[in-house]
Amino acid sequence: MTYVFLAVLSYACTYYLTGLLIQGQLADIAEGLRQRPDAPPPGEYLRAVRCHARRAQRRYTVMAGSLLAVLACLLASWF
């Protein structure tokens, strides 16, 4: 049961952190678009990339969460 808890916790933490990182990057890009006259409006850009951002968040969560879960379970089995 400990390993299941560690795996779920690993995936939850990485999902939250990757979401924060991706949303932060999107906010920076949208802010930079306001400075350029030839760029689309920030709201239009964010609507266009929302599905890609969610997909990237899931992919990075699976990769980083798996690595973190394996490391956490190995560390738990060692102690």
What are the key terms here?
0% strand; 79 residues; mainly alpha
Task: Give a brief rundown of this model.
The chain has 79 residues and is mainly α. It is built from 2 helices and no strands. Helix 1 (2-33) runs antiparallel to helix 2.
Structural account:
With 79 residues, the protein is mainly α. It has one domain (2-78). Helix content is 87%, strand content 0%. It contains 2 helices and no strands. The protein has helices at 2-33, 42-78. α1 packs antiparallel against α2 (42-78). The longest helix is centred in the C-terminal third of the chain and has 37 residues, at 42-78. The protein is rod-shaped and about 60 Å long. 9% of the residues are buried. The mean pLDDT is 93.
Q: From N to C, what is the helix and strand string? A: HH
Round the Cα radius of gyration to an integer and report it: 17 Å
List the uncertain runs. Answer: none
| Proportion of helical residues | over 70%
Q: Globular, elongated, flat, extended or rod-shaped: what is the shape?
A: rod-shaped
